[in-house]
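Cross-check.
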Amino acid sequence: MHKFKNKTRIILLTKLMFLIFISNSIAQIDLNNTEIHESKIFAKNPISIIQSLYLDGEGMPSHEMFLKANGIDPVNSTVESRPYFTLSFLKDDVLNKNGVFKLRKSTELLNMDFYIETVTKHNSVNVALPIWDGRVYEDNNSLIVGGYSSEFNERPVGRIDGKGLFIPQLEGADSEEFPILQLPAEQIIFDPFEWKLLRIKPAKGESIKKSTSSFLPVKIYGQDGDLIKKISFELENNSGKSMVLYGIINGKKTELATCSLENSDIVNRREAYQPELIEGSSQPGNAEVITLTFKGKYSAIVSPQGTELHLNKEADYLSAEYKSKTNTIEIDGDFQDWRNIAGVSDIKGDYVSYLFANPDTDLLEFKVTNDDKYLYIYSRVVGAHGRTGKKGRYYWYAYIDVDTDASTGYPPTRDDNCYFGISMGDDSEAQFEFVGNRFVKTFFGFTGVGAEKEVLSGELELGPSYYAPEGRDGTKRDSYKIEYVKRNGLLSITHDYTEGTSEDIIIALSPDGSEVEVKVELAGFLKDKSGNLLMSRGEVIDIAVGVEGSSDHYGTSDWGADSSPVIYGYIIK
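Predicted model, tokenized:
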């Protein structure tokens, strides 16, 4: 009862503070002028001002009201949730001469995975299409729209006004290079609750379908409706006959989902991508591998409720005490040690329109963890990491803001050759490179004050920098990104196509190539002039990953690229 009263007081106090904020903002509007002075309103907070246009019955900003006001609120909704198990095998172990699946007793299971596919269908007056050809960012209490262009990289092309509408501000021949400016401006709106640019179009009575995939660890809710926070997951192969997903809740183990490997439908088959590897990289299989996806089913303890999964009859189903396995990361291509590490998801199909829709550069997941000595980084793509075709190139980056200061390093916001905008200052990078379906190297990048000399000294200084050594006008820059490796204990500068991996960064691919894990020694990021490591325990960083690659494998020389959301404020524990 006391908890309820305290919660009520907090809600009332929050409402009061919000109303005071709005009152102060409105007080700055010239009531003698019918035009709102946006600069005065935005002097407070542009996001809050736009959100204040969409208040619910209790006077609070509501995303639901935003959806209704723009005719994109769902009606007649249906939701279907289904579990799937994905397993990788040597082809010779599971396929007969006719290509029919038959699991032998001696079959080695190379990798186990699990995901939930949720399909929603609904009707609405309008349909909201995401816009990937630009991004919204704050600058001097204004909301700026940066547009992406193959010719000019990212450039401010407009702004978001006080009503959340897009106002183009770039005209002339240059504007033709920006795909976002080719869309009708009146159809573009900014969602201030989810920070998205949307194109609003009439649905014309057609049903709207959306499919999303959730990988481990998935969210599960208890009988009280609250998210279960202390839960871990384990995948087990039951004598080659079935796969089971178990949940460990409060030290007790229970079955959440299962599939039969003898009778279950195979809903997808994928030939694995297995590139040529050298020192510093590995991948299970070393032969032809096939990855199969099986349709599963939920156990009696799980009830799909809309887009959520809830446990029911908990007390009746929880088994005896059980000790969970540890999650120590081993760079071996077995990704079970990543299944209980939470990360961030990236939307499937978020393609910039002038790039090739390459599944090998379409990120789905990004995770990070660490121990005393190493930073561990994980990513998943729709296709396969490092697939290039016979002559192509593929690059993977971990963008790291080591001081959480966007003014140091370079901003990966289409500066020079970055395809997606990321709101951070990139000081240091861990990277790997493939050329011609062959792993070439892992390496570091530093983007701070100075260049080769400073990096080779091992004593670095953070500050504003650039990606390329020369600007678009051909002038030489004083500070730009330097790529280096450590071999036999010695630092050296590396360049594109230069073979020789850095001994303090190693990677492993999953058997099908869709997942990669990277182990980076913290000391490899070097030290500042005071002798302090740029990356060490206790430090706070912002981090994201990005991938880019040519698409020779798909018969085109066009490149594809993607970046993950940023994990802000990661503490190196």
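Residues 2-69+126-202 form one domain. The chain has three domains: 2-69+126-202, 77-116+216-317, 335-571. Passed to J.P. for a second look.
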